[in-house]
Amino acid sequence: MPKKRVDWKQFPFTEAEKRDFDRFGCAFKVDAGVFHIDWRERTRDEALKAAIFACLGRVNTKEGPLALLAFDISLVRPLPRYSYFPFDLANSKHKAYLTKLTTTGEIKLYFVSRRQMTERVHRLSEPLRMRASAIYEQCLGDLQTYGADKYEFGRALELTERWLRIPELLERRLSEDDITEIADVAKNAARSISEENIDLAQLVVREAENSFGTYYQKNPRAVEVRLLTIVEGITYMRDLQRTFGGHREGLEEFLTNALASSLSRVELENVREVMKLAGLVMERASDSLAETEIGKLDGLLQVPRGIIDLVRLAVVAKRISPNALVTLAERLGITVEGKRGRPTKDYSRECELRMSGKTYTEIARQAVAERQELRDEFGGRDYDSLDRAEKLLVWRRIHQGVITHAERAGISLPSDANTDDEEKNV
User: Fold this and answer.
1) Which residues, listed in sequence order, are joined to residue 398 by a DSSP beta bridge?
2) DSSP for residue 81
3) In angstroms, rounded to a whole number, what is the distance separating the alpha carbons of residues 253 and 349?
4) Distance of CA 356 to the CA centre of its chain
5) Under 8 Å CB-to-CB from 403, ≥6 apart: which residues?
6) 3-class SS of residue 151
7) For the whole prediction, is pTM greater than 0.85?
8) What is the torsional sign of CA 330, 335, 336, 342?
9) How far apart are CA 70 and CA 168, in angstroms?
10) Out of 124, 382, 390, 418, which could bridge 386 as a Cys pair, Cβ 3.0 to 4.6 Å?
């Protein structure tokens, strides 16, 4: 069904803003700090009744970062209307608005129908506002890493629109209204439950909080990234299943070409070892599950935890180059270009320490003491309090960082003759 035409003469929109309606589903009047939502098939009453969900998203492409404000607006949940607006991080007015948004959480909206505009004010929940503030800070950090003088908003936007789906930023199962309704139902139901059961349930909640809450409070970003990675990985596997189904030969050819065109022979051998290790873990997991009676999870407790960390450690141990991993990810279509990956670090300090004669273990210990991001990654602990796997992870990261920095800077490092023994003794 074709969209009804808006009588643009009734509204003070520029030509660029009219194009934004068609491209993004909304237009932003930066001086007024107001978003105009394309509502041309709907009425004023429907605008007043519509449910609004909004959140700030971040995309870091190889052409630079973007912050996007995404909207999910619906009269009924199965048919939401998505719109979004990308912010130019080199635009001082855009940055000023983001600063205000992440401080107040307030979003002013006008729903534009055929001949009128309906005003709404939406407020981010406090957790969403805090999350938006963190995302904006990350965007500014990405911009600094990329180089503000090299930033090209248009090219970054083109890459984003090529790969990103706006529903990914807005995905959720429960709205705030849903949670309120569920909470009321649970509260009413609990009134008929014995005090003993209430006390036991409260004990379970508090013990869970004691077990996991402290780590989450210290590492909220790490937990969020890991959860998102799990969701994205499962979605990607479903995509492959949907595409190839039972056509094993097609999937095998797809993966073979991606690996062969991304990794060297040595790296392929290393990946082969990692896959053998992962296969053994998965086999043990399935054996444990098969031995478990329905409704019991005791067998699962025998499954080694941290499989992702184990595989990551194996990859780091084998020194598969980051560039090869990025190339493989792009071959498989997993990431927005430049979206994933550890930001480039400056290892000049560690390189100077190596030149002064310090061992990599001494440098790793000092790096953890001096680098806040490393301490945050490991829950605020110092190097000596890490377990051996964690020490190896830091040690190898520092070792590779020093070597890479030296190669780029044309520096001749002291001999690495004793490095293998040092690594074994970490």
Assistant:
1) none
2) E
3) 45
4) 38
5) 413
6) coil
7) no
8) negative
9) 10
10) 390
Left (φ > 0), alpha (ψ -120 to 50) or beta: where does 93 sit? Answer: alpha
Residue 315 has pLDDT above 90, yes or no: no
Under 8 Å between Cβ of 219 and 380: no
| Under 8 Å between Cβ of 73 and 81 | yes
- pLDDT (0 to 100) of residue 297: 37
Classify residue 67 as exposed, middle or buried by CB count within 10 Å of its CB (0-12, 13-18, 19+): buried
Query: Which tokens belong to 282?
Result: 């998965």
**How would you classify the pairing of strands 106-112 and 34-38?**
parallel
Tokens of 256: 């073979």
Which residues have a Cβ under 8 Å from the Cβ of 135 and sit 6 or more positions away?
A: 56, 57, 58, 67
Q: How far apart are CA 298 and CA 288, in angstroms?
A: 9
Arithmetic mean of pLDDT, 292-302: 38
Q: What is the pLDDT of residue 310?
A: 47
Please check the confidence at residue 390 and state whether its pLDDT lies above 70. yes
Instruction: Report residue 324: phi and psi, to 5°.
Output: -65, -40
Tally the C-alpha atoms within 13 A of residue 33's C-alpha that lie toward its C-beta: 15
- Residue 376 phi, psi dihedral angles, 5° rounding: -60, -40
Letter string b/e over residues 300-309, b meaning 16 or more CB atoms within 10 A of that residue's CB: eeeeeeeeee
Residue with tokens 């009744």: 49
Residues whose CB is less than 8 angstroms from the CB of residue 160 and which lie 6 or more positions away in sequence, other chains included = 59, 61, 66, 68, 86, 336
Query: What letter does residue 293 receive in the DSSP assignment?
Result: P
Give CA–CA dist 279/285, Å, rounded.
Answer: 10
Furthest CA-CA distance within the chain: 78
Q: Residue holding tokens 């941290």?
A: 306
Residue type, 362: E
What is the share, in percent, of the chain residues with pLDDT greater than 70?
77
Q: At what angle do helices 388-409 and 348-355 cross, to 10 degrees?
A: 90
User: Minimal CA–CA distance to 345: which of 394, 411, 418?
Assistant: 394
d(CA 376, CA 221): 10
Q: Could you tell me the CA-to-CA distances from 206 to 66, 203, 213 in Å, in that order? A: 39, 5, 9
Cβ(7)–Cβ(80) below 8 Å? no
How many contiguous H segments (helices) and E segments (strands) does the chain have? 19, 7
Q: Which residues contact 30 (CB under 8 A, 6 or more apart)?
A: 91, 93, 94, 97
